[in-house]
Structures are given as C-alpha cells and as structure tokens.
Design a protein that fits this description.
Helices cover about 25% and strands about 30% of the residues. α3 links the parallel β4 and β5. By secondary structure, it is an alpha+beta fold. The longest helix is centred in the middle third of the chain and has 15 residues, at about 105-120.
C-alpha cells in the first residue's frame, strides 16, 4: 500500500527539482499541465508545506509523487454549479498532482488514499481542475470516477489566460 506523508520544509528544494524534472519529462507527451518555472515554484511549495497541505510519496527516499490537498479553489470557481452542493470546507481540492512513474498504478493508489481520508473526514466530494489541452489527465480522472462539471476561463500568473475543465468525484458517504 502506498503511504503518503506530509512534506517537510527541508524537502522544498528536492520537491522543486521533482516538479522541474516532471515538467521536462512530459513536455512532449499528452500530459501537458503547462507548468513552467513560475508554477509550481519554491514559494508555492514552501507555503503548501507550512500549511500542512503538501504530500509526498517517497519510497527509498526518492520523491516519486507530490500533491497538494486542501479545500481551496480560487474565486473563479465560486459560481460553478458543482454536482454536490457543499461548502468549500466540505470538499477536498487537489492541486499540483504529479507522479514520475506513469503507468505503474501509483497515481491511482494515491487518489485512493486521498479518497479514503476524505471519507473518514466526512467530506462530500473531491474536486480538481485540468488545464485545457491536458487530455491525458482528463482520461485519468474520468477513469478514477471523476465527472466533468464545467469549464472556466481565467488568467493564471503561470500560464496566462487559459480554460480550466472542472471535475468532481462524489464520495461514497453521500
């Protein structure tokens, strides 16, 4: 079983390097999150760690996956008609999810752990956004039981004006 753990501030640089390696390795693949040196950056990583929201999977002391788990989405998502009527605090939001071992089931196992934890904490759903053009991520999330909700267009410092596709997974405790 995969064990996610909270990242430590001493791992900030290693996590940044992990993300940069992911960005380099997938630049020509169907997984195009359009990340760059602006996102995820060291400030984002450190803030996420200090808030207790950055999780890593690191067997053999090598970072294999990172994810930020919280209940926060930007104000651009305030008027979305999600499938589950829930306060922000009653949901889980996934950000900056990356795995360097595609096709080995690690991502699915990580999402299973996030889902199990969300159910234990009486959350109603898990929400995620996918930047336009990242067809691989859309396929993965649909295979994990996420349903398309809506699309919104807004300006993000790291990628400019983009369309983001919103997905939600209704949790079994509902």
């Amino acid at each position: 079983m995969i064990r996610l753990r909270k990242a430590q501030i001493s791992e900030s640089e290693a996590i940044l390097n992990f993300y940069r390696n992911i960005i380099f390795s997938i630049r020509d693949s169907e997984f195009k999150p359009k990340w760059n040196d602006s996102y995820p950056d060291l400030e984002f990583i450190e803030n996420s760690i200090l808030k207790g929201e950055m999780y890593v999977y690191s067997p053999n002391n090598d970072i294999t996956a990172c994810v930020v788990v919280n209940s926060e989405f930007g104000e651009e998502y305030d008027d979305i008609e999600w499938h589950v009527n829930a306060k922000q605090s009653e949901t889980v939001a996934i950000h900056a999810f990356a795995v360097n071992s595609m096709g080995k089931g690690i991502g699915k196992e990580i999402f299973n752990r996030i889902e199990d934890n969300a159910i234990k904490n009486n959350k109603k759903s898990i929400r995620i956004d996918v930047i336009d053009g990242n067809e691989g991520a859309k396929k993965v999330f649909k295979s994990l039981g996420f349903e398309y909700v809506d699309s919104v267009e807004f300006f993000h410092d790291a990628v400019g004006l983009q369309t983001f596709h919103l997905y939600e997974k209704i949790l079994k405790n509902q």
